[in-house]
Structure formats: structure tokens, C-alpha cells
Amino acid sequence: MTEDSPGDGRGDGPGGGARRERPAGDWRELNRENWDDRVRVHAASAFYDLPGFRAGASTLRPFERAELGEVAGRRLLHLQCHMGQDTLSWARLGAEVTGLDFSAPAIAQARALARDTGLADRSRFVVGDVYEAQDALPGESFDIVYTGLGALVWLPELPRWARIVAGLLAPGGVLYLAEFHPLSDLLGEDGRSVEVDYFAEEPRREDYPHTYTDGPPLEKTRHVEFPHSLGEVVTSLARAGLRIEFLHEHPETLFPRYPVLRRTPEGTYVFPPGHPRVPLMFSLRAAKPAAG
């Protein structure tokens, strides 16, 4: 698969959907090194709790299981699967799963986790970049393509991503996406004031010594993130030929991103009563037309 040009997305202006992308030249290698380094920290962290997962815990959110529905016997591809916990959680529900990630250490950890949990017979993990997924999985198609929380910010070109997703889906198959809402990136630490431009297009180059979990500092601290509006996500998928079945916005998130957030009995975090709210996560389901 050849690289699309940075300007491949047809621009509609701010917030209009598939805007012109400007990838940072070395973004892929910086991000791969950063994520390779994160694996050693994440695997030992309380945040990921691999012992608990081995004992039978699921990492899927209740709304994900409800919105995607029955997966038993269906072929599911998880793009950007990291260490495979979400992937294997779908396998525990009966799906035949494939996880793909560009980090070889993450895939090694996922394969070990599959063996440890007795799920190796219904799971497969492949090292590969999202933009080269069709080369990594030649001629294959899936009933479900799943992308989980925190994935899209690492991709510079959503129109290209959407076309790849459409190409990997079997006729009648569905994309199910659960993500952090882009509005949640705009607020300051008080959870009330807007401090970031929603329509910013420039990649964010970061140099930060820690990952988002507990654990020791990273050695590879630099990475590049790419902001995307909600309109860009939806428009990219629609232009790839997928039909949007729903877009749900959720008032909770997975961690206390702002000090004002309060933990619920279910273990998520929400704004307290009386505090102005913005959506913190969203979920989307899009279908590929059936053959004929």
C-alpha cells in the first residue's frame, strides 16, 4: 500500500469534516518508540491490572457491549489494540478476534496474555501499522472492525483511515468506535474554562516523561498527536461509503481528568450535580452496505 499525500483529505474548512492534514515528518517512528517504551510500564501498572484480567475481568465499558450487541461467532478486528485486553474481552464474549498494533512489544504482551487466559485458540495478534493493515491482512475481511478509546489522536489522516476500515469490512459489516470526546481536550484543569482551540489543525509535539498510568518514567518521551473534530470523524466515514447508524455522546469518562470530576459507583467519572457538563466520551456505529 502506498502512502497517500498529506493533502488527500478534501478540506471543508474548520469543523467541516475531512480537512487537509499536515503530518509531522517523523511522527510514526517517534510514536512507535514511545509506545514500545510504554509497554513495560503499562504491563506492570495497577491501571491495566493484568493479574485481574487474567483472573477474568473485562476491560469493555458496559455501553460498548450493549451498543455493539452479540459478537459470538463473528470475526472482529481490533485496530490499535495495544496489549490486547479489549481484544480478548471481545473474545471472552465469543468473537473470533484479530488484534493489530504497530508496537511489537505490545503484540508480544498480547500474545502472552492470550495464552495465559486460554484464549489463544480464538485470537490472533499481528504487528502492523493501521495505514498498512490491508497489507498485513491480505485478502481478509471482518464482520466487525473495532477501535477503542484513545486511538484516533495518533492518526494524522482520518479520511485514509476510514477508507481502510471500509476496505477491511465484509459487506454488511460494522465499524464500532468508542473514543474520548474531542471537547474533553478543550477544558483547563478546572473543568470549566475553555483553553484549547477546537479547530486547531497543527500536530501537537509532546515531550513528557510519564505515560497516563502509574509507574516509572519513560525513556522515550517524545510523541506526536493529531487533533480531530467530531465532524471530521463522521464525514470521513460517510465519504468512505459507510452509513452512520448512531453517534452517542456520554457524560462520563474513565479517569479523573479534571479535579472536579467525581467517581460513580460503576467506577467512571462524571461532573458533580450542578456543574456545567460537556460530553467526555462518544461512541459510533457505521455499517458497510450489504452486497447486492
Automatic annotation (TrEMBL):
Domain Methyltransferase span(s) in chain numbering: 77-173
Biological-process GO terms, alphabetical: methylation
Any Pfam family the entry gives: Methyltransf_25
Residues forming coiled coils: none
Gene3D superfamilies, A to Z: Vaccinia Virus protein VP39
Annotated stretches, region: Disordered: 1-27
Single Gene Ontology MF annotation: methyltransferase activity
Keywords recorded for this protein, A-Z: Methyltransferase, Transferase
CDD domains per record: AdoMet_MTases
Compositional bias (Basic and acidic residues): 18-27
Database matches in PANTHER family: METHYLTRANSFERASE, METHYLTRANSFERASE DOMAIN-CONTAINING PROTEIN
Protein name per Swiss-Prot or TrEMBL: Methyltransferase domain-containing protein
